[in-house]
Every structure is written in structure tokens, then in C-alpha cells.
Design goal:
This protein has about 450 residues and is an alpha+beta fold. Helices cover about 15% and strands about 35% of the residues. It is built from six helices and 31 strands. A six-stranded antiparallel sheet has the order 9-11-14-13-30-31.
Length: about 450
Amino acid sequence: MLGSKGSAGRGLPKTAGAVVLAVLALVLAACSSGGSAGHSASAKHTVKPVSRASLAAADIKVTPVGGTEDADPSAGVTVTAANGTLKNVVVSEGSGTPASASPSAAASPSGSASSTAANSVPGSLSAGNKTWHTQWTLAPDQSYTVTATAAVAGQGTLTRTVSFKTLNPGNNTFHTQIFEGYQQTYGVGMPIMLTFSEPITNRAAVERSLQLTTSTPVVGAWYWDGNEHLNFRPQNYWPAGTKVSLDAHLAGVEGAKGMYGATDLTQSFSIGDSVIAVTSATAHQTKIYINGGLKYTWPASTGKASTATPNGTYVSVEKENPVRMIGGTPGTAGYYNELVPYSVRFTFSGDYMHDAPWSVGDQGNSNVSHGCVNLSPTDSAIYYNLAIPGDPITVTDSTKAGKWDDGWTEWFLSWSDFLKGSALDQAVKAGPDGSTFVDPSTVAAPVIGVTSGPTPGNWTA
């Protein structure tokens, strides 16, 4: 028993031993736990590789953002390289991959930064190749894919592709018509005339969408005649033989609050020979200038005092052989109902240059017509065969002033007054490479002359 007690005395009580074992277990557990913690800490400091797509998303910013379903078409597309320089940008209509670039294909260092795919949208880079923006607006209710490539220091060449869709404006759109017919020929005074289906309040945006290409350099301007009509007139008469093309990038233009252009408009036409008629109501003569030279001088009779022919530089509107002309009150002395040959119209109210065999004796010495310019059968036939829409017709020395919009009266206005009709207050310089808006003070003054352009105030009495 003593031995047992002694043994017990030298040892630990059972309860104490249990405590020691528990402590040892905790220590071991702590050591084990400490080793695990050290391994975990090491894992937290391991840098995971960042994907090329993530790098591209961080460095190449695209507006509208990918996935947008109702992007504003009037805002276009902007691409910005945050830390590098853009090498190539392609914005393609439709949801497919653009033909000239793919999400995995990087542009070469010398690659163009403009769109080159057949269905791509044109645009341009800013200075420093940091930002690219579309040149024109986007079409409404259309899907687009943007593929942009940038060179970023330390990351090489990155390419990003995003897709989005422009809003659908429903019926809140406007359409545009042009008077000029495809490949038709017009006179040197012909204005380009656009008509809009809805009133336009954002006139500057519409003007900016219009691109003119001319085979011969031309200076002119756009003029708003109300809010549904926009006309272009050269500073001087068109050069004879000029080929003209209009590209109106109107799809997506916000013409008024929430109202967008439905489609683009393109048209090409030609300017023919210069055929200019000038009639003096006091000299009782009509002079015809062809391609800069005086070709004919004819006796004429204009309107009598009560029905004077209105002053002004007009352009021929249409011609017909014959035209039925009716005037006055049936049963009275002034009534007439005649088929008149070789008639060329220049006012909407009914003024013509035409054959008048009944007044040949008065032509050259007195005014007896109801407002038209009377010519002999021979002379009226010559002019009729020369005339096309847009040929300038000027009436001078009359006691009656011309009326704005009674005919195509753009040439009533001086060049400075015509410029005031532009929402941009800019002139247009057009040529074989397209057109640009320029400060009017940078262009030469108009040339005033019979064959180049009318005198200011030509319509006054």
C-alpha cells in the first residue's frame, strides 16, 4: 500500500493528468493550426493572372456600353483608350462580327483607325489617337458591334468587342424628300430643295448631316424657309456642267425632341449649260446669255400697268407646249381662255415666257400682257427648246415687286441675307472630296453680274 501511495505521490492525480493531456492536445492543435494558417497566408499573396479580356475592358472604353438596348442614335459611338492609343476601330451594323476585325484579331501597329468593313460606320480619331467617334448618327432600331484595338504599354495589343442596339422610336420619325430627280439635268440657278414630313426644330443637327460632293469646287449655303423646307444655293450660279451628289445622313438625327430621321437620303444630278434670260420692262427686250456670252436679243412685251410682270431673279419651274391659260371673268372684256404654245413658267402664280403672236406688234415698244413675258413665235420656240428647270429668269425695271416664294425665289436674297438662313451661320465649301462648313468671312465675296449672279434687291420695284 505504501509503495502504491509512494508511486501515486511521485505521479500526478488522474484529473491533473487529464488536464496535461488536454493542454498538450491544444498545443499540438495550435502548432497544426499555425502551419495551416501559414499556408493560407501564402495563398493570399499569390497573383492570379488577369485575362486579356479584362485588361481590354479596363483600357478600352466604349459608349454606348455593351448590352444597351435603347442607345440614343443621335449620340453615335465613342471609343476611348484610357492608358494607350487606339490602333483600329470598326463599328459594324448588325450583330455579327465586322468583316475587317474579329474579337481575337489584333490590328497591326500600322493599322488604320477608321472603319473598313463593307457594312461599317465611318468615324475618325482625335489628336493623339486617344478617342474615336462616329462621323454621322446611327440608324434607329439597329444592332451594332464595336471592335476596337489599342496598344497599351506593358500589356501589348488589346482588342475589345461589344454589341448594343439603338432605340426604336416607333412612329416618332421624320422622312425627307428632295425635289431633284436622279441623274436629271438642271439650270445653273437651281436650288437643292429638301422637304421634311415633320417640323424640324433641331435645325443645326440636320444641316450637319448633309454632305455635298461637286465635280467643280462650289461655295454655297443652306437656308431654312420655315421649319419643313431647307434649300441650298451656291454663292454664284452653279458652274455649267457640274456633277452634284447629296448624301443626307439623316437616319438617327434628332430633328425635334424625341423625333428621329427614319432613313438616309442620297441623290445625284447634273447642271447643264448656262442659259440665262434677262427681260427689261422699260427696254421691252429679252436678252439670252448662253455659257457666258450674249446670244440673242429679242423684242418683248411684259405686263401692262394693271398686271405688271414682277421684278426679280427667278428660275424656270416647268415648261409645256401648249399651256391652257385662263384669266378674267367669263363674259367680260378681260376674259381669256387660250392654248398658249412654247410656255416656260417662272412663278407659281402664273407668269410665263411664252409665244404671243397676238402681241408681236407691241413687242419691243409697249407692255400689253397680263403679266407674262410675250415673245414672237420664232423666239419663244428657240427659248422653249433651250429651257430646263433651274435656268435663271430675271425681270427688271418693272413697277411691281416680286413676292417671296412665288416661284423658286432663292436668288431674291443677297449672299449675306441668304447666309442668315443657316442654323449654323456657316457657308459650305463643296468639291470632289465632299463638303465642309466654313466661316463665311473666309470665302471670297460673290461675283455680281448677269452671268454670275443677280444684284442684291433685284426683286424690289
